Amino acid sequence: MKAGKDKGKLGEVKLILPTGHVLVNGINVVKKHQRANPRAGIDGGIIDKEMPVHISNVSIFNPATSKADKVGFKLLADGRKVRYFKSTNDVIDG
Fold first, then answer.
1. Which helix (H) or strand (E) holds 71?
2. Distance (Å, rounded) from C-alpha 62 to C-alpha 68?
3. pLDDT of residue 94
4. Least buried of 1, 34, 41, 86, by fewest C-beta within 10 Å?
5. pLDDT (tens digit, 9 = 90+) per residue, 16-27?
6. What is the pLDDT along the chain (94 residues), one digit of tens a residue?
7. Rounded to an integer, what is the distance from CA 18 to the centroid of its chain?
8. C-alpha to C-alpha distance for 11 and 58, rounded to whole angstroms
9. 17: how many CB neighbours lie within 10 A of its CB?
10. Taking the chain, what is the end-to-end CA distance rounded to the nearest angstrom?
11. CA separation for the pair 28, 13 (Å, rounded)
């Protein structure tokens, strides 16, 4: 995360929404008061729920530098377009 209450935390992206938001494991967790629904088998009470975060507030973790890093695009000699870390020039998806 680059901004917000969970700035600096790491998590894995679970879902990318068409609205430009993402769901990340363990990030932006809120308490939700949920009403019981016996027909659906849902218990009532206070539950923890992960809420979406805008994709601009998420960055890619670089294991070589152990920090978040900027990403660029380049074409390889065989014509494939790949992403790479700008600080180390390492290819992400090879």
1. strand 71-75
2. 6
3. 58
4. 41
5. 999 999 999 999
6. 788 888 889 999 999 999 999 999 999 999 999 999 999 999 999 999 999 999 999 989 998 898 888 999 999 999 999 999 998 988 987 5
7. 14
8. 10
9. 10
10. 25
11. 12
- Output helix, strand, coil percentages for the chain, rounded to the nearest 5: 5, 45, 55
**Tokens 């659906």 label which residue?**
40
Model pTM?
A: 0.74
Cα distances (angstroms) measured from residue 24 to each of 8, 58, 62: 13, 9, 17
Q: 45 — alpha (psi -120 to 50), left (phi > 0) or beta?
A: left
Provide the token pair at 56. Answer: 């601009």
